[in-house]
Give the backbone structure.
Amino acid sequence: MSTSAEPRNAGNAGLRNTLLLPFRARTLREGLHLLLNFPVALAAFVFAVAGLAVSAGLLITFVGLPLMALVLLALRGYGWLERQRARALLGQEVARPEPLRLRQDRWGPLAWMSAMLRSNVSWRAAAYALLHFPWAVFTFCVVISLWAAGWSMFLFPLWAWTIPAFTDEPGVGVNTGEGPEEGWIWDGPPEYVMAVVLGFLLLMLAAVVIRVMAHGDRALVSLLLGPSQAATRMWQLESDRSQVVDTSAADLRRIERNLHDGAQARLVALAMELGLAKEKLTEDPETAARMVEEAHGEVKLALQELRDLARGIHPAVLTDRGLGPALSAVAARSRVPVTVEVDLPWRPAEAIEGIAYFTASELLQNVSKHSAARQAGVDIWRADDRLMLQVTDDGRGGADPAAGSGLAGLAERLAAVDGLLAVHSPTGGPTTITAVLPWRDRVGAPG
């Protein structure tokens, strides 16, 4: 019984939503936006045409360029107003376009004026003011006509009494001529019902037309008043560059700290022990020999620390033999058994190869530390113009980049080279993490 009732309830809900479409808050907000288009766009159009025409005519004087810059500044403000109006009435979230960029070596009014005149945001706001006006006239006329006819007929029973009360006519005349016998007088309940039905149909038509025209306004605002694709890409590259710089600085600090606290400290202690052994060489040869033996052990430890540090910077096996042997060496040091499969036609560019190596190394380190897995696997292959890297394990799962783990840092590093990181790790496992990197050929690789 419940199975058959669910489609019926869904159908009733759909019919109810359709019948209420003309009266929904979204329809009313979008209709208000389209009605306000005309006065707002008219003022902006007149200002843009007059301001740009006057300033262009004065370009032969020193007043023209500053005046044009001020006009463009005002139009940028108009663009901000339109974004706020679209957000409030259309529910359209439009990101703020790129700010005005002054050249680093220039400051002052002339630099500001030059930046304003060169900014595509300013000119796109001017284009919006010019192009939006004819569209605003059209939308205003359509909405005001449909709403005026629809609401007046839908509410006809509420105001029909005013006609005989304040005029000499018994009701609304349809096609009436000179005599009262000609035409049709709407003055009774049947006519009231007919007017309500016709008015409702017009309001339904108006609701559909409003929804369609509102999409046109959204497109114009997004296209001309939002950030351009080139600017968005530039911001992303600047953000990625900042992340790369921060990561490089952190790596340099880590190397400096490891050298200072590790190998450097051991070498300083070694120098002191050898100095003491030198002093005791003639007085107490046995003690000196024992101290030299201890110093020899310290030398081995220092060399091992330096090797580990060098491996963390860029392992020699990766440079000499590629991803397969390098990741096999990482897998051999892992506490979890790891299988490594590398299927590449040839080696990628050094930078991509290095990023793939350190990504896989960090993911395997996470497997050893956090997953409680019994086995793991690393697969690397090429798919078209992408290098694919996938690390799997049968551990407890629950890995989440949004939880502030190292996965978020990995995702940022991959994004810096137009890569991405996809994590599928349901609670209870298994976990599959896929890294996608752009494929770039190594110098001298087959074409």
Notes: The longest strand covers residues 376-383. The mean pLDDT is 79. Residues 22-225 form one domain. The two ends are 66 Å apart (CA to CA).
